[in-house]
Amino acid sequence: MAINEALSFQTVQPRFTMVLFSLFAALGLALAAAGIYSVLSYAVTRRTHEIGVRMALGARRTDVLRLIFKTGARLVGPGMVIGMLASLGAARILRSQIELFGVPTADPLSFLGVVTVLGGVATAACVIPAQV
């Protein structure tokens, strides 16, 4: 039993660090998602009058949605690229802490997950206000 206690004592700090990093990562992802949704939703809502005029003049629904998605992509695309580059830079700085858990600093699954979540939020932020 002494070996298990000693091993448990030695892994307390790395486990605490992992939980702390995970908590801050989840909080950062939630804040990013909320920010993207609110900015895009506001941008689309401001164009409601324009959308109505376009529809009254004969624009098809797909044309209007394409216009909204272009606007959203122009806002979200560069932000995602800059965010990914900043994340890679931060991962290099924190390499010693991240590699303690056997995770590579540029974990493609993590980056793909973040892009998927934020892309889904951006899509919802463009579609939901346009539906109203």
Helix/strand/pairing category: mainly alpha
Q: Describe the biggest sheet? A: none
Q: What number of structural domains do the residues give?
A: 1
Q: How large a portion of the residues is in β-strands, by DSSP E?
A: under 5%
- Helix run count: 6
Helix content percent band: over 70%
β-strand number: 0
Order of helices and strands: HHHHHH
Characterize the overall form.
elongated
Instruction: Provide the low-confidence segments as ranges.
Output: none
Radius of gyration computed on alpha carbons: 21 Å
Distance linking N and C termini: 64 Å
- Average pLDDT confidence is 84
Oligomer: single chain
Description:
The chain is mainly alpha-helical and 132 residues long. It has one domain. Helix content is 86%, strand content 0%. The longest helix is centred in the first third of the chain and has 35 residues, at 12-46. The mean pLDDT is 84.
Supply the key terms.
mainly alpha; 0% strand; 132 residues
Structure at a glance:
The protein is mainly alpha-helical. The protein contains six helices and no strands.
Give the topology.
Blueprint: H1 2-10, H2 12-46, H3 48-56, H4 61-93, H5 95-98, H6 108-131
Helix pairs in contact: 2-4, 2-6, 4-6
